[in-house]
Amino acid sequence: MRPREIRPGVSWVGAVDWDRRLFDSLIPLEQGTSYNSYLVEGTEKTALLDTVDPSKTGTLLQALENVGKVDFVVAHHAEQDHSGSLPVVLARYPEATVLCSPKAVELLSAHLHIPEERMRAVEDGEVLELGGKTLRFVHTPWVHWPETMSSFLEEDRVLFSCDLFGSHLATSDLFAAEDEVFTLAKRYYAEIMMPLRAAVHKNVDKVAALSPVVVAPSHGPLYSRPEFIIDAYRSWVDGPSRNLVVLPYVTMHGSTLALVEHFAGALIERGVKVERFDLTGVDLGRLAASLVDAATLVLATPTVLTNPHPLAASALYLVNALRPPLKFMSLLVSYGWATNAVETAKTLTGALKAEMIPPVIVKGLPTEKDLLLVTELAAAIAARHEDLGAAL
Ligand code: FEO
Q1: CATH number, domain with residue 300
Q2: Is residue 293 located within the same domain as residue 198?
Q3: Most buried in the list 1, 204, 357, 387, measured by CB within 10 Å?
C-alpha cells in the first residue's frame, strides 16, 4: 500500500489487518483491525509516528519505500501492536531517534530490547520542530498503559491519540463512516478503556482542549469530526446508566435455563431491557460492550462441584477486571446437592461496587415457588432502575 495523504506532508503509512480474528489471544475481532502509523514530513526533518504489529512489518516497509530518511520515530505506546516493528525500522533508518515518554524508555527496553542510546524521553508539552510542522507531545498515561502519550500537529491540528479513540475495524475508508464505527469504537472502549475510565476521563479533557480538527488513532479509521468520538467517550465515561440487565448464563441440564427464561420474561414485562449471553459461545467483546452503560448484571449458573460453572466463573473474573460502572448485580443459581456459588461469585467480583440484590438459589429444577422468587428479583431490579431514573 502507498502512503495515503491526510494533509500535505502528513500521511497514513499503516497496515490494515483484514484477517485477524483474535486480539491478546482473548478478544474476538469481528471486523479485523488496523495498526496505524503516520508519517509527518517537515521541510527539515521527518518523523514516523508509531510502527505496526510485527506481523505487518513488510507492509510498513513497503509504504516507506520512497522515504529515504527518518529522523525521529515517535513511540506513543510500547505495546507490540504499535512498537513491534521498531527494531526493523531502526535498522532500516540508523539515524533515527526514538522519542517517547520517560516510562516508555523502560518499557521499550524491557519488551523489545531497544538500546537506550537510540531513545530520548520527551516531556509533557515538549515540542519538536520539523520545519513547518510542529509536533507537541502530550502525556496521556493509562490510555492504555502507564507510558502512553499522544502528539498534536499544531499547524494542521491533527491529534495522534494512539489507542485512545481507536476501533478494531479493517476498512478501506481512511476516515470513519460514523454509523459504521460507533458500535466497534464502543466495544473497543469497553475492552481497553473502561477499566481505566478515571484516567481516560482526564485525558479526553486534556486532548479535547487542543481543539483538534482530525483525530488519528492507532486502530481503525480517523475522525474528521472529532466531536463525534469525543462526545461518545464522554457519554461512555460519565453517562447515565441504562435500564438494562446484562444476563450471561450457562446451563447444563436445563434447570438454569428455566430460571433465565422466567427471569427475562419478568423483566421484559416490567419494561426492563435484557441482553442475554449464552456463555458456551459468547463473544466477549459484545458482552463487554453491553456492560458500558448497563445498570445491572445478573449471572445465571449451575454448580460444578458446588461452585459456579467454570464458564460462569471465567465471565465473572473478566467482568471484575473490566470494572464496569454497574449499580446492581445478582445471581440465579441452580445447584445439585450443595452450593458455595454465591460466596465464590462475591470473591470473584470484589472490585465491583455494585449493590448485591439477594440472589435466587434453587435446588435442581425450579418449582412454582422458586419462580415466584425469580419474579420478585425482576420486580426488585425494575424498582431500583426506576429509582435510579435509568433510561432505555
Ligand atoms: Fe493497540 Fe495498547 O495497544
Answers
A1: 3.40.50.360
A2: no
A3: 204
